[in-house]
Amino acid sequence: MIPMIDLKTNYKSIKEELLIEIEEVLESSQFILGKKVSLFEQKLKDFLSVNNALTLASGTDALHFAIKTLGIKEGDEVITTPFTFFATAESIIYVGAKPVFVDIDGDTFNINTDLIEDKITDKTKAIIVVHLFGNPSEMDKIMDIAKRHNLKVIEDCAQSFGASYKGIKTGTFGDAGCFSFYPSKNLGAYGDGGLIVFRDSLIYDELKRLRNHGSLGGYIHESIGYNSRLDEIQAAVLLVKLKYIIKYNENRRACAFLYNGQLSNLDSIKVPYYSPDAYHVFHQYTIKSPKRDYIQKILKENEISSVVYYPIPLHLQKALTYLGYKEGDFPMAESVSKEVLSLPIYPELKSDDIIKICKVISQAL
Ligand SMILES: Cc1ncc(COP(=O)(O)O)c(C=O)c1O
Q: CB–CB of 115/139 below 8 Å?
């Protein structure tokens, strides 16, 4: 079976370094908010060229805390894409605000920047832009819209660690960048984890309190917070993997380019599009085809994994029916969800496997 991702092979390639780092944590017996977390946060600031970075328990918490600390609250509206993982919208709802969806671009799968301004009302407070599948959104256009309408910008970078647009890393354009270290992400832990980077140092203490029960320490609680700390063992794992992230992303890109070369001449397949200004990190390699279900069936018969991200756009999810959207509201997101198929991609994926996958697809069509 060719899997979607092979975390075991990755583990074996860095096993010795990982075990040394993890053992240091075990020997120190400091498991929460210790040296590894501080060092990892410093390395993240250096890597992303930002002044403020705090690790958290998940990417979902990063989004939730970004929205909260940027002052978005009940009655406010937040513009985002309906073609993303559910957590993007959930985080808006956590603070009592309303997600307002804007249809996507059928080529990049990201929010269609030409449609955003029509949806801005006097209740709109922010835009959450998602760099889906590792493909950076058009940040210059989004920042321009936000500036003209006085809106906050939150970047959901759960799938785009290391990606950049016009040479600037995703997560560093807006007011806050929110990352996930879920195990399958480009930079993945061995459990859950997240990161928020943010522009305004004034919210630093508030974010620190949010992740630790409203306290900056000493059992003094100034506000109501949460338990949302990255633990030391995950920080140890991530410190090792961060050393290799540039190579991992380069390998993913090489896999994607090989796929493109093999698949782009097939009539019924559209290979992923990305702007020449974008450094796409291919968290997913996602093709589009009207024959999607047939291709997936043939791949399965040939022991090749594939996954549909995402089969139901958010505006049609049962949990969000109260928002009042209906089928037909976002035709591009709906049509894309019927045609997309993500193929195996990971830094250790072999060229021979990619060629085999492409052969199976081309012979089937
Ligand atoms: C686009 C997107 N946003 C948010 C999240 C949430 O991240 P986490 O699973 O770390 O909470 C994910 C991760 O699955 C994601 O893919």
A: no
What is the phi/psi pair of residue 332, to 5°?
-70, -45
pLDDT at residue 265, rounded to an integer: 96
Contacts (Cβ under 8 Å, ≥6 apart) of 107: 270, 273
Could you give the domains of the chain?
7-102+110-239 (3.40.640.10), 245-364 (3.90.1150.10)
Record the pTM.
Answer: 0.98
Q: Residue 231: CB within 6 Å of ligand 1?
A: no
Predicted local distance difference test score (pLDDT) of residue 33: 96
End-to-end CA distance of the chain: 21
Closest to 82 (Cα-Cα) out of 348, 336, 340: 336
pLDDT score at 24: 98
C-alpha span between 76 and 203 (Å, rounded):
20
Q: Is the CB of 259 under 6 A from ligand 1?
A: no
- The CA–CA distances, whole Å, from 222 to 152, 216, 219, 228, 248 equal 26, 8, 10, 16, 42
Q: Is the CB of 187 under 6 A from ligand 1?
A: no
Is the Cβ atom of 182 under 6 angstroms away from ligand 1? yes
Q: What is the mean pLDDT of the chain?
A: 98
CA of 147 to the centre of ligand 1 (A): 27
By most ligand atoms within 8 Å of CB, the mutation choice from 159, 228, 229, 238 for ligand 1 is: 159
Q: Is the CB of 255 under 6 A from ligand 1?
A: no
Q: 351-364 vs 232-263: helix axis angle to the nearest 10?
A: 50
Out of 56, 60, 157, give the residue to mutate to test ligand 1, the one with the largest number of ligand atoms within 8 Å of its CB: 60
Provide mean pLDDT across the span 293-298: 98
Q: How confident is the model at residue 206 (pLDDT cuts 50, 70, 90)?
A: very high
| Atom of ligand 1 lying closest to residue 87 CA | 4
How many Å lie between the centroid of ligand 1 and the Cα of residue 210?
Answer: 19
Report strand pairing: 194-198 vs 176-180.
antiparallel
The fraction of the chain above a pLDDT of 90, given in percent, is 100
- pLDDT at position 41 is 98
